[in-house]
Write a structure and sequence with these properties.
This protein is mainly alpha-helical and 76 residues long. It has one domain. Helix content is 63%, strand content 5%. It has a two-stranded antiparallel sheet with strand order 1-2. The model has no long low-confidence stretch (mean pLDDT 86). It binds zinc ion.
């Protein structure tokens, strides 16, 4: 008699696995992406995010510069 729950059945069928970061396909747990295409997509996305962060940083520094300018030269 081997009555297993549906959860056990799924575990047996799929085994330990993770999902592709980009498209969500089931992949081996030691991998992050299902294919080179998804890997490239992720790397491109990450690079975009990084350049976005840089722009935000420059914007913030600019704002701080303006604030200092106001503090020291205008509100005196
Ligand atoms: Zn994928």
């Amino acid at each position: 008699m081997s009555q297993s729950s549906w959860k056990d059945q799924i575990k047996k069928k799929w085994g330990p696995h993770s999902h592709c970061t980009i498209c969500g396909k089931a992949i081996p747990p030691d991998k992050k992406f299902c294919s080179q295409a998804c890997r490239d997509k992720y790397l491109g996305y990450e690079q975009k995010q990084k350049s976005k962060g840089k722009i935000q940083m420059i914007f913030l520094l600019g704002m701080m510069g303006v604030m200092f300018f106001l503090l020291f030269f205008v509100w005196r």
